[in-house]
Amino acid sequence: MLRRVLVSVLILCFLLPFTSGCAYWAAKKEMANAETTLAELKAKGGATKAPYEYCSAESFLQMSKMEFGENDFQRAKQFAITSQSASQAGLTEAQKK
């Protein structure tokens, strides 16, 4: 019984670094997507046509970078997704005007 528990713990300890690596790359990918969408919004005049969405997207991307720097990859990914969503909303708003 004790042997099974020890083997299970060892397997878990061995697999844990691989699962955290997935979060790293997922956050990195979402941050790159958010930066691309924000750059597109900026190019279409989002700072003047959709200032709320532009500032929100910029702020969320900055928070994503901060969380990524602190190795909190899940939160970095969430902030990057929110930034991209705000940029998309800004693009929609900028196209209306």
Query: What is the count of β-strands?
Result: 0
- From the spread of the alpha carbons, the general shape counts as rod-shaped
Can you count the helices? 4
Q: Could you describe the largest sheet, including whether it forms a barrel? A: none
Number of domains: 1
What is the CA-CA span between the terminal residues? 69 Å
Q: Could you tell me the radius of gyration in angstroms? A: 19 Å
Overall structural class, as computed from helix and strand content, comes to mainly alpha
Unreliable stretches: none
Strand content: under 5%
Helix content: over 70%
Average pLDDT score: 89
Strand and helix order: HHHH
Question: What can you tell me about this protein's structure?
Answer:
The protein has four helices and no strands. It is mostly helical. It has one domain (21-96). The radius of gyration is 19 Å and the shape is rod-shaped. The model has no long low-confidence stretch (mean pLDDT 89).
List the helices and strands and how they pair.
Elements: H1 2-43, H2 46-49, H3 51-69, H4 73-96
Describe the structure in brief:
This protein has 97 residues and is mostly helical.
Q: Can you tag this structure with a few keywords?
A:
97 residues; mainly alpha; 4 helices
